[in-house]
Amino acid sequence: MKSKKFLIVGLPGSGKGTQGARLAAYFKIPEISSGDLIRDHIERGTEFGRKVASATAAGNFVPDADMNYWIGQRLLQPDATGGFILDGYPRSLEQAINFDERHGKHAAELQVIELRLPESAVVARLSGREVCPQCGRIYNQTSHQPRIAGHCDADGCALTRRPDDTVDAIKHRIEVYENRTAPLVNYYCRGGRMTSVDADGDEDVVFERILKAVGKTPVAV
Q1: Which residues contact 200 (CB under 8 A, 6 or more apart)?
Q2: Of 37, 123, 202, 208, which has fewest CB within 10 angstroms of its CB?
Q3: Residues of the chain with pLDDT > 90: what percent?
Q4: Is residue 157 included in any domain, yes or no?
């Protein structure tokens, strides 16, 4: 049986958070999101959160040394011993090499899933994205609207917009991704650890494609 250790990569808005959460529920393993980790620190006003708040709002990456440390700390927690899903880390070649060197067994067992989505679809998705600040559910003004406009279906909380979901910030994030993360994709391709999945379409259909890619029979979750 294949390892239950996954890394999901792809352009901002390609569905990494949504599909990562579904994959985590399917395998009953934690989803370790670098974005969620960073936002938690910012909301709690920690020293790290204050350090990176302005950079993330502008769509820039957090320094490698910081992310290497905090992801490493998260992987030490008991719930990650049976497997995990990494979302948003590693997101550069330097981070990937550091992860391989520091987490040998985890790295060797990692299955990398690339979610492929056209740039035009990324801009459309993110510019219309709304997020529940309570449970983290993601909605979209065009493709996945809540039952009651502006409120989460699960808990009724007022939905918010992320500060880096403006059109200018989105385009900058795409540029940063192409410059820093494309080499990461090539790195995992050469290592034979990566498979690509078409992320354009209904999220249920995309999830079925992911399950097939990791060798599991699609089952509704």
Answers
A1: 116, 117, 118, 121, 206
A2: 202
A3: 45
A4: no
> Tell me: the pLDDT tens digits for 96-153?
999 999 998 888 889 999 999 988 888 888 888 889 998 888 888 766 789 999 999 9
Give helix 64-75 / helix 47-57 axis angle, nearest 10°.
Answer: 120
18 three-state secondary structure: helix
> Domain with 197 in it: what CATH number?
3.40.50.300
Structural domain span for residue 113: 5-117+180-213
**Which are the contacts of 150, defined by CB distance < 8 A and separation ≥ 6?**
130, 158, 159
CB-based contact 143:205 (threshold 8 Å) = no
Q: pLDDT-based confidence at 218, cuts 50/70/90?
A: low
Q: What share of the chain is helix, strand, coil (3-state, %, to 5)?
A: 50, 15, 35
Query: Within 10 A of 204 (CB to CB), how many other CB atoms are there?
Result: 11
Write out the two tokens for 75.
């992987």
The answer to pTM > 0.85 is: no
The answer to whether the beta carbons of residues 5 and 218 sit under 8 Å apart is no
Residue 31, domain member (yes or no): yes
Strands 5-10 and 84-87, bridge-based pairing = parallel
**Backbone torsions φ then ψ of 18, nearest 5 degrees:** -65, -50
Provide the domain count of the chain: 1
| Residue 8, burial from CB neighbour count under 10 angstroms (0-12, 13-18, 19+) | buried
Look at residue 74 and tell me if it is in a domain.
yes
